[in-house]
Amino acid sequence: MGWFLELHAKLERVFFPTLARKYAFILLLALFPAALYGLLQASSTTIRQLIGQHPALPAVMAEIDRLSSWALCLTALCLAFALIQVLYLHFWITRPVQRITHVYTEAASDEGDLSRNLPVLTCDEIGQLAQACNLFMSKQREIIAGVQSMTIGIALDAARSMKNVKDSSSATRQQDELARKVVTASEATTRGINEVSERTGNISSSTSTNLGVAHDSYNELQDVMHRIHAITGKIATFNQTVDGLNQRSASIKHIVDLIKEISGQTNLLALNAAIEAARAGEAGRGFAVVADEVRKLAEKVRVATDDISSNIDDMLEQVAETQQETELITRDANLTRDVVEKASGQFARMMTDFETTSDALADIARTLEEFSEANRLVHSNVAEIHQLSLAVNELMGRSATSADDLSLAAESVQGIVGKYKVGQGELDATLTRMSALRDRVARKISELHERGVNVFDQQYQPIANTKPQKYLVSYAEHFVRELQPIYDEVAKTCTGGKFSLAVDVNGYGATHNSWYSKPLTGDAAQDLVNSRDRRLFNDPAGLRAARNTQPFLLQTYARDTGEIMTEIDMPIHVAGRHWGNLRLGFDASEFLHKSKP
């Protein structure tokens, strides 16, 4: 059986590669009656020669002629039937098959059109095949539309994941930086705690030593205070003795003065007695001698009393000085006693404070030890957090790469399935509308170019005092007048449309939508959102959009305003040159919501 199939395949490739050649065999079948007619004609001649003048010859020949006529009619009928059959097969088999082939050939092209259905012209297997093909194409359209929506969702989720990863990575880096700072601070704190603990221990030891010295000093001070009290008592007793001595000295001086007075009177009496003895003459001579002796004695007494009085005066003066000095000593002793008592009280309070300080220092030392242990634990935990932050940061980097790869893969899949026109789905409708509007924008720019406007001007002149930085080119005002209305129309034609503008290959947009072309206010956050005209969008997403040369580019990214934006970009060609792209940004969430059945 295998050799037969192989032989058939070879013959088919050489002689019957098309249905038309296969139909030719139907015409060959019509030649069989013609061959029969030829055989009958040849047979009639042979029969005529064989039977000669046989009486049956006319009848035989008439029958042969009748058969020949029928053979000729049959040949004509076969040819007509074969021709009709060939035409029928051509119109009802070959042409539908060609249509199927044409539709699938177009579907298999780079920009395949899957939106058309095959006409169902018959009820036979060809019609069933067309219905099956239509069902298959419908399913393919559903799958492709679903894949388009799904890839938009994947790209949206990937962009959100990328933004979240970047935010998380930034937070992780901040956490890592804070962890490093905490580790550094913890190390410094540990060193400080150790130093403070060491110094606290030294102070506590010194305080304990000083407390012992203070106790000894307090005891000595108490002894000094007792001695001062004793000295004060003795000084008081001595003061009383000096007072008594002063009083007795005064009494002695009074007695001496009395003796001195008596001596003076005695001297006067002796003088009077001498005078009287002289008057008495010889009789009073003995009395005169006595009087003279008395006078001498009185003189000696006077001299002695003068000396005694002088000594007593000196003694009284010294006693007075002693009394004054004793009073000073008493005052000083009392003052010293008061000072010592006050110092003793202060010393007692100081010892109490020393004891409190010593206890506090001991508590501080214990607390510092506990704090040091807690700080070591914190340091260990923060160091672990630091290591975990590094690991998380590395994982975040991998996640960012994976999210970026996922986004690129989604864009690649979208680029592949987006080549097919499916005739259904929001993306297909948006691409169709945007393509027409892109052509309008391209025509407008081409018209400006034909009027002599330098639409390829790339001498971007910075506009002073603008933030975000704006630039001016020669064709900017023309774009504002003629293209801004189209931009607004493009943005409004798309479900969830946010913005639309044409940018050159460097990402420069001379104007923007009317709601994004407001004057600068000086508020950087507000101007970033509302004043986006005349800017160079040369971020990675902006440059990809500007330099796209594919029929369209679908990308999802985090905008500089923080929004997650999905964007369709279509290239613009002017005078045979790639001028840039028309960008259409939209909210994929609204887009996908409308795309759901």
Automatic annotation (TrEMBL):
What keywords tag this UniProt record? Membrane, Transducer, Transmembrane, Transmembrane helix
- All copies of the HAMP domain together span 91-145
Domain Methyl-accepting transducer spans what residues?
A: 150-386
In terms of InterPro entries, this protein maps to: HAMP_dom, MCPsignal_dom
CC per GO annotation: membrane
Entry-linked Pfam families: HAMP, MCPsignal
Q: Which CDD domains match?
A: HAMP (cd06225)
Q: Indicate the transmembrane segments per the record.
A: 20-40, 70-93
- Give GO terms for biological process: signal transduction
Give the similarity note: Belongs to the methyl-accepting chemotaxis (MCP) protein family.
PANTHER family, sorted: LYSOZYME-LIKE PROTEIN-RELATED, METHYL-ACCEPTING CHEMOTAXIS PROTEIN MCPB
What is the name listed in the Swiss-Prot or TrEMBL entry for this protein?
Methyl-accepting chemotaxis protein
Organism, as annotated: Chitinilyticum piscinae
- Please name the taxonomic classification of the source: Bacteria, Pseudomonadati, Pseudomonadota, Betaproteobacteria, Neisseriales
